[in-house]
Task: structure prediction
Amino acid sequence: MHVLILGADGYLGWPTAMYFSQKGWNVTAVDNYFRRNACTELDVGMLYPLPSLQERAQLWYELTGHEIKVIIGDIAEPEICRSLFTGTRPYNWAKDTSFTGLPEVIVHYAEQPSAPYSLLNYHYADVTVTNNLRVTNNLMFAVRDLCPTAHLVKLGTMGEYGTPNIDIEEGWIDIEHKGRKDTFLFPRQASSLYHTTKIMDTDLLWFGTRTWNLRVTDLMQGPVYGIDTYESEQNERLRTLFNYDEIFGTVINRFITQAIAGYPLTVYGKGGQQRGYINIKDTLQCVYKAAENPPDAGRLKIYNQIMETYSVNELAELTQKAARKAGYKVTINHIDNPRKEAEDHYYNPQHQGLLDLGVLPHYLTEESMLEMIRTVEKFRKNIRKDVIFRGIKW
Amino acid sequence: MHVLILGADGYLGWPTAMYFSQKGWNVTAVDNYFRRNACTELDVGMLYPLPSLQERAQLWYELTGHEIKVIIGDIAEPEICRSLFTGTRPYNWAKDTSFTGLPEVIVHYAEQPSAPYSLLNYHYADVTVTNNLRVTNNLMFAVRDLCPTAHLVKLGTMGEYGTPNIDIEEGWIDIEHKGRKDTFLFPRQASSLYHTTKIMDTDLLWFGTRTWNLRVTDLMQGPVYGIDTYESEQNERLRTLFNYDEIFGTVINRFITQAIAGYPLTVYGKGGQQRGYINIKDTLQCVYKAAENPPDAGRLKIYNQIMETYSVNELAELTQKAARKAGYKVTINHIDNPRKEAEDHYYNPQHQGLLDLGVLPHYLTEESMLEMIRTVEKFRKNIRKDVIFRGIKW
Result:
């Protein structure tokens, strides 16, 4: 079995590549280094330096004997995207890379993944919309034309749903209106431009799926936390990137780093914002289980990829407790909310589908937080306090 | 009052520019000549040659004394889009054009408007997604940053709703689910890529509207028919473009031309596809009435811009009857549906909002069809039968 991982240099991409490789799959890892370049451009810092994708693939091969093939190119460009399925590399190809064959599964992470980045200013908004929509659309056409039976596993986000005043189902809802009934995509209304591009992705893929009988799974994931996975524990240079800044750092990763750095935990507004969270180890299980269970042709399968829900206040308090055990005194600082979002709302998302496929959750506990603290504090001297908060507003 | 018309060289753009100008508004007409260039590139023919936007503005000025200022540039590019609101023209500006001042109203037609174009192949799909989303997004940010109190009147499409099995409301629906309630955008599920980009536009603008208190009206328009408007009747060189081909021609305009050319009316499949239709004269009324009635800041107002509904079979029969009166013998040819769409479905869209604002409908009748036939047959020798049907499939 052959899997293409698109966005393989990202926070989830590289661990996913190792996970499939470890399971015996042929893995082709594709990226244009968008994320690491953006981190450099915006000077957000990373907790530790990141070897290139090729260097990590080489190390992985030396340690395990499994080969991960690496392709560097921008698949927002349709000709480059299509070359993944034909091997015919277009003119703008820096390095000769051989054709790795048609995949059975395509994992699509190849998007700009940050809400604050998407709202830094109009330029970054344009980059986000252009990149995310072009990649998804050009990929959809490439699959339709060149690899129509492949299973496309797309990373969506729980943020597509926003915080409605009704229970959030897994992607679909039956509506009865004036005595008639139909089934629709669950209504979606996101609180950032980035999250809105994910709504648009879902609309695109649902159009393509039902029109051309594609097989697509859309994974509505909540914020991920964590560093190590079982694969990366073999060598620290196999670790995925770790951001703790306001732009690319997810909240739990940020809070842990702030606790270690002696930087008060920044809670936006009342802190009653509830979200669904997931450990990076469970992301890998979820993506793999989803990949192994393709929907019928023409069906868009949607899972809510979270394991538990927390409010920001609860996360801050849990971080405080865990950090105290490690000897850190942590304060919590409620600041004026720089975002337009509900700070106190109903939130009841269903998330049974992936558990039914056999995913075994790692829950967030003081112990698991303490474990993350022990890893992050090894790099304590690298933490830059100046990048933690920049006050990006919308 | 000052209105920016974006996409002013298009089928609706130019008549809208004249309509506002006639009403005494200062009009700035903006286009990048996408539509006429695409017609040339794809060799689809037009019923008669089209003077440039500048030539038409000059003629309009000579006839009425009203000035329509013309700006040629591609507003998918953020710097060019923003220059409309600052007057600071970026480097890629061919002709010096002075700043026309901030508008009170912006009418946004600046999109690739054809479903078959969007699905010709992956290249045209990429062009459609990139153009339509970038224009809407960059315009939204330009308005937010530079002209936040302006009223943005956006052309959407009834095609966003598709053909659901429930009544179609004007943009919004109250949903009760498991004992709880909320209000959402009406569920949307379109039958082409082009129509899907319009769904995405609505999602984008709803995000911007509620986040930054913009004023946006989204007009869900059905297929438009017609040629002359009251303004264009002053001189035939003021007429808007007229396409009768499969890519850019709307169904009634195509049927009338086919009847005159002795080309059987091509009905896709069973012909039970129902849609809402509108005369081009009513489009102008609707856009104007909508412009005059801005929503409160932070509200997205949605109108369903149609005057009546017909099935394709009914349109074919009406064309046949009207053409018979003009001496044409017309046959109807049911062909295998080249599209994936329901051919027999429930369809009950609400469309009271614009009537409540005072729009006075022109309905489709044998007489109004006969009038169109009399205009189109003046150009009978220009009609190219080879461009009427190309068999574009999806």
